[in-house]
Design a protein that fits this description.
By secondary structure, the chain is of the alpha/beta class. Strands 1-2-3-4-5-6 form a six-stranded mixed sheet.
Length: 349
């Protein structure tokens, strides 16, 4: 049996996840991620290790850009086969890639003006790595799969997706490869979530595999218990509100914003913090939160109970969604204490 596994990213670094699996008749790419470390961003401009049109499929673990962010570049280079993922991952990836394409366009325009003003050339072209239109070209290729249901992705190759407990729709991918009466199982962990994390089911456990490719971003440290972090969060809200201040929370649009809403709703229901106005001041976070509402079957038992009791963390009385610039600016005119969840980029402009 001949199986070749090539590590094309996220090896001796964190971002740019990309793994090539080759058998005698099939080539699969597991994830196609963007490099995000400042020192490694130049790698995003490098040619792909293999001709994209030679691939039979892409298997996408989840929607973070370091796992999906180079998909538009892949389709630029004539890849037109299926991209397998869960439906939730496909929906969120559309949002993430459109935003990334817009930022690529804005960044290229800014660099072009700056280089012209400084009368110099940069190391890389003053063009976007990809555009919003390039991002849209990815969308028709998504082929959603359900957790646990096997799908044939190549000759003698079966893939199944299993809950990773990381972000909504995130998966660990199990490949079963059969050749000449033999079979091998490879598991790709993607990013693994923590046990007892809010809203999501715990990560899937597997009984056996021949090979496991596992992420280890936090493998060298112990994280403090979630309840300790939650207690500290509630204390900060109370201390700030007691002084009449505003609680401004920079937050990633995917998962972190929804987790913050979960805890704020929980604290208010339990009487651990006052009922303050909560503004989700991030159009992308709002769009992703709507995707959460499309997939209640992916929630854990506690979250499903909240929904049955009409106590959703995405629809409580104090929550205000600010979708426009005007609505965002209006927050400045408010008096009293408010909680404002905004995009993490607010800290850097």
């Amino acid at each position: 049996m001949q199986i070749k596994l090539s590590f094309l990213g996220a090896a001796q670094n964190v971002t740019g996840s990309q793994y090539l699996v080759e058998t005698d008749s099939t080539k699969l790419l597991v994830d196609c991620g963007l490099y995000q470390e400042r020192a490694l961003k130049g790698r995003n401009w490098n040619p792909f290790f293999m001709p994209p049109q030679s691939l039979d499929a892409v298997l996408l673990t989840h929607a973070h850009l370091d796992h999906c962010g180079l998909l538009p570049k892949l389709t630029q280079k004539d890849f037109n086969q299926a991209i397998y993922s869960t439906a939730a991952t496909a929906e969120i990836t559309r949002i993430m890639l459109l935003d990334a394409g817009k930022l690529q366009e804005e960044d290229a325009s800014f660099k072009k003006r700056r280089h012209k003003r400084e009368k110099r050339k940069g190391k890389y072209p003053e063009i976007p790595l990809y555009t919003q239109e390039d991002a849209k070209a990815v969308f028709p290729l998504f082929s959603p799969v359900k957790y646990g249901e096997p799908v044939q992705v190549g000759e003698g190759v079966e893939a199944s997706f299993h809950d990773a407990g990381h972000v909504l729709g995130a998966s660990m991918v199990r490949l079963k490869i059969g050749q000449n009466g033999e079979q091998r199982t490879i598991i790709f962990s993607g990013d693994i979530g923590r046990w007892s994390k809010p809203m999501l089911e715990d990560p899937t456990l597997f009984d056996e595999a021949d090979y496991v490719v596992v992420e280890s971003t936090y493998g060298d440290r112990l994280l403090e218990p979630l309840e300790d972090t939650a207690k500290e969060f509630a204390e900060i809200v109370n201390a700030t509100a007691d002084k009449g201040g505003n609680i401004i929370i920079p937050s990633f649009a995917l998962e972190r914003s929804q987790e913050i809403l979960y805890y704020l709703n929980k604290f208010q229901l339990e009487g651990r913090i006052p009922r303050l106005p909560v503004f989700l001041d991030s159009p992308m976070a709002i769009s992703i939160t709507e995707v959460f509402g499309n997939h209640p079957h992916l929630f854990d038992g506690e979250m499903k109970k909240l929904l049955r009791q009409e106590k959703s963390p995405f629809d409580f009385p104090e929550l205000k969604l600010t979708r426009t610039t005007e609505e965002s600016k209006a927050i400045n005119r408010l008096t009293g204490s408010n909680i404002i969840i905004a995009g993490s980029g607010m800290c850097t402009g």
